[in-house]
Amino acid sequence: MSTHTTLMSPRTGKAPERTRTSLVASNAADRLVAIARRGPREVYADLGTTAHGLRIDQVNRLREEHGPNRVRRNGPAAALVRLLRTFTNPFVLILVFLCAVMFVTDVWRADPRSGPSYDGVATVGVMVVVSVVLRFWQEHRSVRAVAALDGMVTVTATATRKVDDSVVTAALPVEDLLPGDVVSLAVGDTVPADVRLVRARDFQVNQAVLTGESAPVEKTSDPVGDADAGRIPETANLAFMGTSVVAGSATAVVVNTGRHTHFGAMTAQLGDARSESDFDAGVRKVSHLLIRFMLVMVPAVFVVSGLTNDWSQALLFGVAAAVGLTPEMLPLIVTASLAKGALRMSRRKVIVKRLSVIQDLGALDVLCTDKTGTLTEGRITLAGHVDPTGRRSGTTLRLAAVNAYFQADPHNPIDRAVMVAAGTPLTEWIERNGSFVDEIPFDFRRRRVSVVVEDGDGVLVVTKGAVEEVLAVCDSVLLEGRVRDLDSAARSRVDGLVTRFGSEGKQVVAVARGRRRVTGGGRPKYSTSDESGLTLVGFLTFLDPPKRCAASAIAALRDRGTEVKVITGDSDVVTETVCREAGIDVGTVVGGARVEQASDDELDALVRDTAVFVKIDPMQKARIVQSLGRIGCAVGFVGDGVNDVPALHAADVGISVAGAVDVARDSADVVLLEKDLGVLDHGVLEGRRTFANMVKYVKMTAGSNFGNVFSLLVASAMLPFLPMLPLMLLVQNLVYDLSMLALPWDRVDREFVATPRKWDTRGLARYIVSFGPISSIFDIATFALMWFVFSANTPEQSALFQSGWFVQSILAQSLIVHVARTRRIPFVRSRASFPVLVTTVVACGFGLILPFTGFGQGLGLTPLPWSVLPWLVGITVAYCTVAQLVKMWFIRRGWM
Fold this sequence. Notes:
- By secondary structure, this protein is an alpha/beta fold.
- The strands form 3 sheets. Strands 8-23-22-21-9-18-20-19 form an 8-stranded mixed beta sheet, with helices on both faces.
- A hairpin with a 4-residue loop joins strand 12 and strand 13.
- Helix 25 runs parallel beside helix 27 and helix 26 runs parallel beside helix 28.
- It is elongated, with a radius of gyration of 35 Å.
């Protein structure tokens, strides 16, 4: 039996006395250990592949065996599981409990003389079914919508396969990778599977997602004879799914995919749970607030009703009151609002990776962003190549082209601009006269990259990078063909030249060279220690023009209460110039050195008033974002590079773009299909609209229901009969809730979206205890009308009394929606959307007609005299008028 067969997990059969998850994890770890101990040739043989990758006939077989390279992390559960989860909502559980109570009182323990009654159980059961089915269906649609949106952002890996007799290297969707695939990895890539490195050049990986350690780990391609399954992440020649490349380049062979990866095993043990977001916490707090109101009001209604009426009727009445206080459509309204918001945002080129982030996006009051691509066009062109005196220099361009041509990472926009400027003749000259020896890759600490080449005169180190970092390793300067000391006078002239270019909005890159002598018989390995004693050759200047729309987008965000802060690794002069053109009040610019030295308390004080941070490294970006969070800001961060990943994780909302490096896109909560702050402004606006319509339902339902239950408490203490039968209360509540399903499609006033919004349970409680009693005042006016004017003051006339209040309650609840949904004057200065208007008319019409129908009379209602209707309409209009006046008073007090 071949080694390959021995290492592979069996395709069939079950392991005795072990769980499937632990078996998969164990087999995968053993497989990685065995592969890590072998040399590259043995690795290819073990995995049944070659240096040119898998053959097409192997691909089809392996796909059937291993399936897609996918880890089900925070993915949607099965439909049946989602359906069962809908019953776990506290409001649905309350309804189920109440249904059980009504079954006991109305059916099981019913009076033998009247027999069992299924009306109450059926009505509450319908409410449960409607709430659960509608919520499940909406969540199902939301899951499909998010999956479709997520499909718009495809993650790929550079893979090599053998097609017929040709070797093809191309971008392949990560899900299509299979064991045995050969992949290329470069800075910014997310490792797409568990892989064995077969070639590595200064290759460093961030394994924080696995180990929690933020420091990069260096990897090699050498066999590891002492590889241990208990310390898999420490294995030097293995890289793991989900980790990110921060330096160097490598070629690797895929060993394990999907749930067989080390990350997949961790995910299986942790489950799909994720930390609670600000949005989820807000919904939870609101739900608990409403439940606390219920725990106080319902027992009071039960006790008062029992003291004045029959205790069994009082129990049913208390049950109905509990249903009346239960906003059972809250989960459905929330889900529908979020799903609609996600789809609208996708049309604006904003893709959300989870629905709850929509509210978080609308709550942002600080947006941190890089300069390149957001404030600027992101189309870098070479503006000039000069010597240290500022004169045009062909030598500077030639050496810059050598550096760019021999780099392992071809995706750098600066290098692309250099090669375009170099043109075909210079490129061909480099091919003829240069021979690659080694590369000292770029990293974010050194901020420079060097290549080592043989050019006929020996070994030449060519370095290119940030001006300060290149000057730090130079001790001489090339002036008019002669090498001279880089003394203080020369440095002063260089600083003046760089400052001048920066004031023109140009990015400046320094180019230096140094000769090295080859010693020994073999080819030596070069390192950062060889970046010393270099000669400054000149500078490259690049233009990345400011976006025309940047200033208007920043102004729009500022008008909405979202402050834009720029955090960049670029120099201060260039950044200041671009920021001023974009309309940012620069003020005092803070550099990375000051951020590094500041304590957390000092940084908290610093970030509050600073708009521009320059020369910032990746961990400093994360510190700034965390500091903003500590001082109470809701922070969004826009980033597209591997250096932005720590800040993306630290932000309340991580925002990336479709063209970002894989690891940045994977870390983000929101992906922009176009890197434009104007696009993001639309996303912020949509997030606030979505949140507004959710808050409307909570406020209107909680305030109205609290008022009704308070009225029930007063009436129960004063009347010799129940003010409304339990079934009437249930039907009334169901009609109102169904009419609220149109709220996700309602219009939102401009004033509401003008500032960031968050859940405010204290303000909601104030609203409930203020507006609830107002509705009770007019309920009591209805009681007086029916008792004194229409003589519905005996148990025999109770049906007339109950019918009058039933109609008035539905009219009041339906129309008060239009008062509470806006800060303006309803119908005059703010009109609801057409769906909301239609549901209002339907609900009012249903309430007016129901007492005249057989179904209504079966509930205990009776036809009302036509003379009572004008009175009920007048009371409703008076209620809406008073509510509008109180609302205006609330607004003046700053409570709304």
